[in-house]
Amino acid sequence: MTQPPGFVSSSSPHHVCKLQKALYGLKQAPRAWYYTFSKFLLSQGFVNSHYDNSLFIHKTSTTITVLLMYVDDILLIGNSPSHLQALIHQMHSAFAMQESGDLSYFLGISIQAMGDTYFLSQSKYASEILLKAGMTSCKPCPTPMSMKPVDTLAANLPFHQPQLYRSLVGALQYLTLTRPDFSFAVNQACQYMHAPTNAYFALLKPILRFVQVSLSHGLTFCPSSFELQVFSDSNWTGDTIDHKSTSGYCVFLGSNLISWSAKKQPTVSRSSTEVEYRSLAHATAELSWLQMLLHDLSLPLVTTPLLLCDNLSAIALASNHVFHTGSKHIEVDCHFIRDKIASKKLLLHYIPSAEQITDVFTKPLSVARFQYLQSKLLVTSPPISLQGDDKTSSALAVAAELSS
What is the model's pTM? Predict the structure, then answer.
């Protein structure tokens, strides 16, 4: 830490200050806080998950307690209220902390509970984005993205407020935590953050107009079976500029959507089969991680995970171990899906394109098609029964702050 202006030592002007402890706000502070707090949790019998460093789990023969940490914000949940209260008491004695009580708001996400049903939304955060963009009273838009291609001639004109563009796109990225329905549109907007133009800002406006008309929308979670089902799809050469494809997948645990992705592939593919095959590999990697995470949480799967794809050639390539000349250029790491299928750890089935939910993560859609897939993702406005002041949630949220 450099000597502050006005307090530079005359005898040692080139010396630096030695910190006796980590100060809040410095680059080293989050690492120092994580080391201190994780050391405390390990002393309390918690085990750090191997698959998520911010997740800590405490298990006994009858209880399980899960703690999730994001810097100095902590989410604590368990099936034993007495153990939760004892742990909170120990945390208060060791750190200067502020307890928030029953879970209702965490990291900008509102959680409404009624019995065993939870509704997650970011309506307040979305309103702040519209206020920043000056579009609080804009004309509504039924879909977040037009099916018309980008006007490449207008794309050459630079946008006069690139910082505003980057700020809005970054905020929309965080909004997709509870709004997977416009993940693809935000993914497209992210590709022009380095040099935004007037044409690309025009593509951003429909997203904001769509957010304005669906401010209260969010994700609904309800009791369901513990069966993993993954939809995988891609859009071959969907980008008209660099001809790269977009991969997408969505993972359901029972009827609840728990993971999704819309990502441009790093290389140009030679065929739709190759594109779909790469998408299957990405979805399988996410599925493997989720299986290990669920095992850490003592939630074993009762059935083999199911991967659904609408490309028969990609399914044949993933299921057939014969080496084909048409696929010899595909990276070795994409072929691990074959081992999963051969060892019966994954079932790969065909699904008709009309039932492929992942279309919403890979391409612009018509209004009717978009609204249909939006309902399949369980992205809806909050049910009337969830808009009351319900206090039946058993989860506890605790906010921790480093003492100054």
Answer: 0.81
